[in-house]
Design brief:
Elements (H helix, E strand, L loop, with lengths): L1 H6 L4 H25 L4 H17 L9 H33 L11 H12 L1
Length: 123
Amino acid sequence: MLFILLSTIEDHKDRLDFEEIYIKYKSASMRRALRMLNGNQFDAEDAFQKAWIQISQNLHKLKNCDETAISTYIMKTIEFKALDVMNENQEYRKYLQSTEVNSKEYISDDLIYLVCCHESIEN
């Protein structure tokens, strides 16, 4: 993931600064995401990736900040992205409940499959 994020940053010095920040905070930020999302690895990785994309896009805001401000910004970004993932999951569960798929037809967690099953029953 680091390589992809670095490829989006044009300035060489900014790339070096971002790489240093990423390496320093990647473990702590992943632990925070895992903790907030009750150990769900998939959701934590989703929140982690979304947060670091946002951090890379806002790198200019961190240039003149001290270590405490950088750490706080990163952890708050992780927390907000974890909350976003939680909200997305709640919306997904609400949609699953609204499709009223019969348990005999329920084979997969794949949303597309569920929608197709529901549509084929009605048609």
